[in-house]
Amino acid sequence: MSVDIIKISPGFEEIMPEDYRDLVNNGSYGKGFSVSELGTFKELIEEHPLCAGCGLALSLRFILASLPDPEDTVIVGTTGCNSLAEAQVAIHNIHSIFGNQNAVATGLKRALEIRFPGRTKDVVVMAGDGGVGDIGLGTTMHSWLRGEKFTTIMFDNEAYANTGGQESGMSCEGTVLNMAPTGKKFPKIPLPEIARDAGCVYTAVVTPSNPKRLGKMVRQAILIARELGPSYIQIYCPCPTNYKFKPSESIKRAKEKEKDGSYPVREYFSPKAKEFVERLEKRVNETG
Amino acid sequence: MYFAAEVEQEKCKGCKLCIFSCPEPNAIIFKPAKKKVSIDPKRCKACGLCLEACKFLAVTITQVK
Ligand code: SF4
Ligand code: SF4
């Protein structure tokens, strides 16, 4: 998509909703904004129905502000809290049937390469822990094993949050939720390590407590996926509604989990991905 | 009637920490000329994250009529 496509046709300026005009005039398409500039431009997401204090909503803002080329990006989502917000995003996006996101993304990425030769189109899967780690684990793993060149981002709120609070594979052992009253009986799935072993050339585990760090990882993951192969980012998204803490404590909770080792921030690079990132950083340093 | 966050302009130092803690898009806007932020009460869910983030105690949550 060219940046021109989001421009308003002459004569229609006045009848377009204010938010749309704002997006065209002050949005981030083609301008290369980053997380640091949030608050100074119209964001790529509008008002969403996610709960007050939602860590997923916070992470989504940071991700959207970090996309290397939003105008050439397609998001593939699936059922979950995130799908309620993704409908408000001003980027091409597809809602796939629960668990199908990485299969859909595979077809889409390949089709875009044929349809737009010579032009880079980024496909980014954004889905919840249920979509990626449980219901869609088969399609997710197979896209990694096949080496498909797109990024998968998991919003890990450690529960099925919009269906009343069932445990997911990503909930920690012993977690008690509304619909897991006796506590979860098996440990959290070590998906980052599974991703690394299944062929993801770059894997990152992070929380939204540090926006710049998250932004850098997202950018890195997308750029690496373009060149080398699948990348995976897992973001801890504190859920005040199901884990029953105050909405104002979401970020504090993320920081605590990083510190006490229950959600360690970490990155895995394949040797080629490491080399690629070092080259990229060198180029950035040289050009300022 | 609902609740929303508000920034006391005299106390705000423009550090943008609140912007980086808000889950709501386009709710807290940075005004470069004044180097301060303001909050659109219609977009705020009164979660209190910005209040926790602000080191200068510039944010309060108040009732909006
Ligand atoms: S965190 Fe406080 S001082 Fe900093 S910009 Fe926000 S309101 Fe102003
Ligand atoms: S109270 Fe919550 S929703 Fe309202 S401006 Fe602050 S962080 Fe954003």
Secondary-structure map with pairings?
The complex is a heterodimer of chains A (288) and B (65).
Chain A: H1 18-26, H2 55-64, E1 73-78, H3 81-86, E2 92-96, H4 101-115, E3 122-128, H5 129-135, H6 137-145, E4 151-156, H7 191-197, E5 202-206, H8 211-227, E6 231-236, H9 240-243, H10 250-259, E7 266-269, H11 271-287
Parallel strand pairs in A: 1-2, 1-3, 3-4, 4-6, 5-6
Antiparallel strand pairs in A: 5-7
Helix pairs in contact in A: 4-6
Chain B: E1 2-7, E2 28-31, E3 36-39, H1 49-53, E4 59-64
Antiparallel strand pairs in B: 1-4, 2-3
The complex binds iron/sulfur cluster (2 copies).
One iron/sulfur cluster is lined by residues 5, 21-22, 24, 27-28, 39, 44-50 of chain B.
What can be said about this structure in brief?
The complex is a heterodimer of chains A (288) and B (65). In chain A, 39% of the residues lie in helices and 14% in strands.
Which terms would index this structure?
heterodimer, A: 288 residues, alpha/beta, Rossmann fold, seven-stranded mixed β-sheet, 11 helices, 7 strands, B: 65 residues, mainly beta, Alpha-Beta Plaits, two-stranded antiparallel ribbon, 4 strands, globular, binds iron/sulfur cluster
Description:
The complex is a heterodimer of chains A (288) and B (65). Chain A is α/β, with parallel strands linked by helices. Chain A has a single domain, classed as Thiamin diphosphate (ThDP)-binding fold, Pyr/PP domains (Rossmann fold), CATH 3.40.50. Chain A contains eleven helices and seven strands. A seven-stranded mixed sheet of chain A has the order 2-1-3-4-6-5-7, sandwiched between helices. Chain A starts with 17 loop residues before the first helix and ends with a helix. The mean pLDDT of chain A is 95. Chain B has 65 residues and is mostly beta strands. Chain B has one domain (2-64): Alpha-Beta Plaits (2-Layer Sandwich). Chain B has one helix and four strands, in the order E-E-E-H-E. Chain B has a two-stranded antiparallel ribbon. In chain B, strands 2-3 form a two-stranded antiparallel ribbon. The radius of gyration of chain B is 11 Å and the shape is globular. The mean pLDDT of chain B is 96. The A-B interface holds A 35, 38-40, 42-43, 45-48, 50-58, 61, 211, 240, 246-252 and B 16, 19-26, 28-30, 32, 37, 43, 45-49, 51-53. The site of one iron/sulfur cluster has 14 residues of chain B, from helix 1. The site of one iron/sulfur cluster (SF4) has 14 residues of chain B, from helix 1.
